[in-house]
């Protein structure tokens, strides 16, 4: 094996969401026990993984579902001694502003007949298209298990599926599927509602995030018992990192004279309480979206300067309401005959919500049971905060409502260019991957990649970075 130089003395990670905490975990694995890792967080550990409480029970408010083939998340849960709960269940309908254009049936065969009747074999072809994208994307796990790293998101995506795969970032989902022969009716009634519930956007998002979003309609989705954010706090513990509660204001490139050590290149200046403090680091990981509204970090003394990121993040509000749904908005059927537990909406629906569905608490293993008065806890995503009138329109009566506003994920606008991973010599940025697709697993993949990249660059192992033809090369290896 290649020669190793002494490990770095100190690494800083900014942001204790799933990206930052999994970075701490992978950096510890690669650089060993002696390196000091400081993890800066200005709010809560978990970031966009958070819960909200309704009458003593906690519910996921941000990142909530995990795909059965999200192998990093699966591995974390296993290694960290956490348990899982299944999240799927209940019947779904699609509302177009006037009527329910599709209603799931509890009888499997009936569902198939309904789908084929309305859309022919398009649902099956769609499933095959998504599976093909996912199959290729999953090659990343093999590359990472052999320690290979990529210096840009584009190179990573190219390595898993070549030019066509990378091309998914440059085209909208709509044009990609239109070219593949899917009908407007199918795109409007079946695909657009899935994009609205998952990314609060239309089918004009890039085709890769479109495929990721469609995998979230697969069966077998799961969540972490007790809340997905537990993964972050456990990763933090397991990595033996030092959590610093503070807001990073500046990252400054230092001169060697300042630190007396040629590798301590960066000074991180942060605010904790009313105090401003700083420390010097060999390597810095930025694990939060770099835009003024979200992290407000200024880079000082870099030549050439670190570019400004002006990318726009989509505003989404999560509202949890405990109450009795006014199902007559969606259907003329009697309320005890309604039967749907999720309603998605089409782009033309003109509704003030993107979707609404019954949710289970983070501790419930089974499908949610109604309380004695027949009410459930419903979750809805909307582009704006709901007014009291709007909540009263949705519910015949309600006991309780809580909300949380997010700058949730990028506003996708292909052709997409993902921000660089290497911002400077030893300064790495993880969240560029969100411009390909934003999901917990994507942040974990970015974290593993950046930890491998930092390790190989520290040790001069250039042969482990941006290797071509990895799929063919590793196919023959056990
Ligand atoms: C409503 C919603 C629903 C979602 N649903 C799903 C889902 O079902 N499945 C899925 O896989 N994904 C989902 N996602 C996406 C997923 O939650 C995110 O992709 C993922 O959590 C991002 O993690 P991250 O660590 O990269 O960023 P974040 O979680 O945003 O972490 C960044 C952290 O950095 C901190 N920070 C920022 N600036 C500073 C600073 N200057 N100093 C110190 N700390 C700072 C922030 O407080 C934050 O904690 C959803 C997201 C939202 C908002
Ligand atoms: C990265 C890969 C291959 C798959 C991830 C699939 C996945 C679980 C994507 C989730 C996307 C997302 C942002 C969903 C938000 S809404 C989730 C849920 N429907 C809810 O109502 O909370």
From TrEMBL:
Residues 102-467 form the Prenylcysteine lyase domain. It comes from Sciurus carolinensis (Eastern gray squirrel). Its EC number is 1.8.3.5. Pfam families: NAD_binding_8, Prenylcys_lyase. GO terms for biological process: prenylated protein catabolic process; prenylcysteine catabolic process. Belongs to the prenylcysteine oxidase family. GO terms for cellular component: lysosome. The keyword Cell membrane does not apply. Prenylcysteine oxidase that cleaves the thioether bond of prenyl-L-cysteines, such as farnesylcysteine and geranylgeranylcysteine. Only active against free prenylcysteines and not prenylcysteine residues within prenylated proteins or peptides. Involved in the final step in the degradation of prenylated proteins, by degrading prenylcysteines after the protein has been degraded. Keywords: FAD, Flavoprotein, Glycoprotein, Lysosome, Oxidoreductase, Signal. This is Prenylcysteine oxidase 1. GO terms for molecular function: prenylcysteine oxidase activity. It is found in: Lysosome. SUPFAM superfamilies: FAD/NAD(P)-binding domain. Its cofactor is FAD. It catalyses: [(2E,6E,10E)-geranylgeranyl]-L-cysteine + O2 + H2O = (2E,6E,10E)-geranylgeranial + L-cysteine + H2O2; S-(2E,6E)-farnesyl-L-cysteine + O2 + H2O = (2E,6E)-farnesal + L-cysteine + H2O2; an S-polyprenyl-L-cysteine + O2 + H2O = a polyprenal + L-cysteine + H2O2. Gene3D superfamilies: FAD/NAD(P)-binding domain. The lineage of its organism: Eukaryota, Metazoa, Chordata, Craniata, Vertebrata. The keyword Magnesium does not apply. Its main location: other.
